[in-house]
Amino acid sequence: MTANLGFGFWNLDLGTWNFEPVDSITHIALGAVVGEAIAGKSLGKRAMYFGALAQSLPDIDFVASFFLSPADNLLAHRGITHSFLFGIIATIALAWLGQRTHKPLKIPLRLWMTFIGAEILLHLLLDSCNAYGVGWFEPFSDKRFSFNILFVADPFYSIWVGIAMIVLIYMDSKNPKRRYWIAVGLIASSAYFIHAVLNKMTVERDVRAALEANNIKHSRLLTTPTPANSWLWYCVAEGTGGYTVAYRSSWEGASDSIHFTYFPRQQELLEPFLNEHDTQQLLKFSQGYYTAEKWEDDLIVFNDLRFGQIAGWSDPKAPFVFHYYLNDPEANLLVIQRGRFSNWNRTTFNSLIQRIKGD
Question: Which of 79, 237, 258, 306 has its CB 3.0 to 4.6 Å from that of 135, i.e. a possible disulfide?
Answer without folding.
Answer: 79
